[in-house]
Amino acid sequence: MLRESWSLTVRELKHWYRVKIQIFMTLIQPIVWLGLFGQAFNIGSFIPAPMIPQYFSGAPDYFSFMALGMLAVNALFTCMFSGMSIVWDRRFGFLNKLKVAPIPRGAIPLSRIMATVIRSLIQVSIVLIIALAFQYVPGLTGLTLKAGFNVMDLMGMFFVLFLLSVAFASLFTTIALAVENQETLFGVINLLNLPLMFASAALFPTAMMPEWLKNVANYNPLTWAADALRQFAFVDTAPIHDLAFDILGLVFIAVVLAGMSVVVSRKLLSNK
Fold first, then answer.
1. Are the CB atoms for 70 and 38 separated by under 8 Å?
2. Mean pLDDT of the chain, nearest integer
């Protein structure tokens, strides 16, 4: 199944990088988010300077706190559209050709998940580079990492983003297989994206949230990812969860959702 999955994954990636406007959007979107939202929405200015690391998970300023959360949000947004190619393949009949082809049914969702994870990691790499580069632009605040940040910390961050991407890509690929048209898929995406983003510690410290929202946010996978990223990047003396809890939580949800996607897709592709 891996060979068939990889062949379909390459097809998905070719569709992505051959559309120049998508490459342009990949480059311009992080600049818009980090440049406008990150630089303008500086809630750190309302907090006394000595208390900023305490509120922002050890980050020296709000931008550094937000930039790492933005890596997780960027992975989420990329994964949300992982099922769009399934919708188009269904509309143009290519999905029916795959259904009668001598390939395992599980290769179809698995290829979408793999292609989305690769795209997601490329895009978060661009976001990370831009966030770091901002500190060399006069007048802007850039991402400042802890002293002694090393390759192992960087690999740990990308492992966290890999797990998060697998989990969300699996979820939205399964949803795309279950719905009949793109209007329904967009409706589901719009229903989930803002609650997932704002009910998390990606952009705002949970300490500033109401107690009920804080309890919800603490068990949002986006919070686990953002919390783990900050523990790799900063000296966080008061993390939301232990690093092991965050990573094991992400491993669990990635395995469960990927397995569910493969199992459910076999049934869905057999009945349609």
1. yes
2. 84
- Beta-carbon contacts of residue 47 (< 8 Å; ≥ 6 apart): 55
In sequence order, the 6+-apart residues with CB closer than 8 A to the CB of 105 are: 99, 265, 266, 269, 270
Provide the sign of the torsion angle of the four alpha carbons 51, 53, 56, 60, taken in this order: positive
pTM above 0.90, yes or no: no
Nearest to 82 by CA among 127, 115, 126, 121: 115
Give the integer Cα–Cα distance in Å for 187 and 269.
Answer: 22
Whether residue 143 contacts residue 67, with contact meaning beta carbons closer than 8 Å, is answered with yes
What's the rounded Cα separation, in Å, for the pair 174 and 94? Answer: 18
Burial class (CB in 10 A: 0-12, 13-18, 19+), 21: exposed
pLDDT in tens, 146-190: 888 999 999 999 999 999 999 999 998 888 888 877 778 888 888
Q: Determine the Cα–Cα distance for residues 154 and 245; give it in Å rounded to an integer.
A: 19
- List, in order, residues 6 or more apart from 34 with CB less than 8 Å away: 63, 67, 70, 127, 130, 131, 134
From the list 171, 175, 223, the residue with the least C-alpha distance to 195 is: 223
What is d(CA 29, CA 120) in angstroms, rounded to the nearest whole number?
13
Q: Are 222 and 248 spatial neighbours (Cβ–Cβ below 8 Å)? A: no
Residue that wins the pLDDT comparison between 181 and 213: 213
